[in-house]
Design a protein that fits this description.
The chain is an alpha+beta fold. It has 2 domains: 188 residues, DNA ligase/mRNA capping enzyme (D-amino Acid Aminotransferase, Chain A, domain 1, 2-Layer Sandwich); 144 residues, Beta Barrel (OB fold (Dihydrolipoamide Acetyltransferase, E2P)). Helices cover 20% and strands 32% of the residues. About 5% of the residues have low confidence.
């Protein structure tokens, strides 16, 4: 490729803020929950690069035709690959694409086609736009992509913090992750946390039903606690993990949790998860021993604990019946019973039609 901005290129990153900034000088956008992608196009040549500088083209073959048809002849665009499902953005469908078999990827591309949401323009023709202020880059992006058609989309943007706050609350029902805030006067800064992200923060009480050893200290360090919530029928579902511990805390947890390991599998709700895995997947029950889609060599074996302890965790949002990201450990709750850790404590976000978001300019 002969572009003024060459791959591989580190994308500009973000840092968290507790609230949407309301002082002048910000551009606000919805925060999409997908795979970050930089798209490089030079004529008939196309490259989709991930956040960690790896090519994504083989995992999303259906996007190539649309990108070649909708993007300028020579450009570099920053954005997100997403999959829209019947209930909003479907991150699990994206994860399924990371498969070594091309036949499997092609089948999924037909069944659950992806989209690309553009939000920044880094190069156009022979121009390197990274030094141009964010506000001007947005105007240039709108000029070249204002008429794109699905599966290409131009992300909504606004300079009004009231609009951003409305998006923050309404768009979560479509599976979006919060709001981005970008300084209008700032250049594009590869690898720098020069943007802000404002994400949802919630709390939940979860039953602790097991743990995994830390990769650097099996038998000496706890890696993560396995969290469970009961449904209305009394079934304990695996909803995620919390691993936000210091090394000293990981070592202390080994001794603290040791008494709960005695006879832990006697009557444990997940004792037979291995033999139940296929049936549990069919019924929708979450179990703790699934293979990692990100790293098939990762050890996901776990150790059972008697389900007697409750911890309070912070989480962002649910995807289906599972925490979308790892939960943050807050504190132990000795005053709570594991049986009281139910789904009905969680805030339910009303669904929002994803197509209405794509149509916003």
């Amino acid at each position: 490729m002969r572009l003024p901005v060459q791959p591989p290129l580190e994308p500009m990153l973000s840092k968290p803020l507790p609230a949407i900034p309301t002082d002048p000088g910000w551009l606000y956008e919805p925060k999409w929950d997908g795979f970050r992608a930089l798209v490089f196009r030079d004529g008939d040549e196309l490259l989709m690069q991930s956040r960690d500088l790896r090519p994504l083209d083989r995992y999303f073959p259906e996007l190539a035709v649309a990108l070649l048809a909708g993007l300028p002849e020579r450009c570099v665009v920053d954005g997100e690959i997403v999959i829209a499902g019947p209930h909003g953005l479907d991150f699990e469908a994206l994860q399924l694409r990371l498969h070594p078999a091309a036949s499997r990827v092609n089948l999924l591309a037909e069944r659950t086609p992806s989209s690309f949401v553009a939000w920044d323009l880094l190069a156009l023709g022979d121009e390197d736009l990274r030094g141009v202020p964010q506000g001007e880059r947005r105007a240039r992006l709108e000029a070249v992509l204002g008429g794109v058609r699905p599966p290409l989309h131009l992300t909504p943007a606004s300079r009004d913090p009231a609009v951003a706050l409305d998006w923050f609350h309404r768009f979560e029902g479509a599976g979006l992750d919060g709001v981005m805030a970008k300084p209008l006067a700032a250049p594009y800064q590869p690898g720098k946390r020069a943007m802000a992200k404002i994400k949802h923060a919630r709390e939940a009480d979860c039953a602790v039903a097991g743990f995994r050893w830390h990769k650097n200290g099996p038998g000496r360090l706890i890696g993560s606690l396995l969290l469970g919530l009961y449904d209305g029928g009394g079934t304990l579902h695996h909803v995620g993990v919390t691993s936000s511990f210091t090394m000293a805390e990981r070592a202390a947890l080994v001794e603290e949790l040791a008494p709960l390991r005695d006879h832990a599998l006697d009557g444990h709700p997940w004792a037979e998860w291995a033999s139940w895995a296929e049936g549990a997947a069919a019924s929708g029950q979450r179990m703790p021993g699934n293979v990692s889609r990100w790293n098939r060599d990762k050890d996901l074996s776990w150790e059972a604990l008697r389900v007697e302890r409750v911890c309070e965790v912070g989480y962002e949002h649910l995807q289906g019946d599972r925490f979308r990201h790892g939960a943050t450990f807050r504190r132990w709750r000795p005053d709570r019973s594991p049986r009281d850790c139910r789904y009905d404590q969680l805030e339910v976000t009303p669904p929002y039609e994803l197509g209405r978001i794509f149509d916003v300019r």
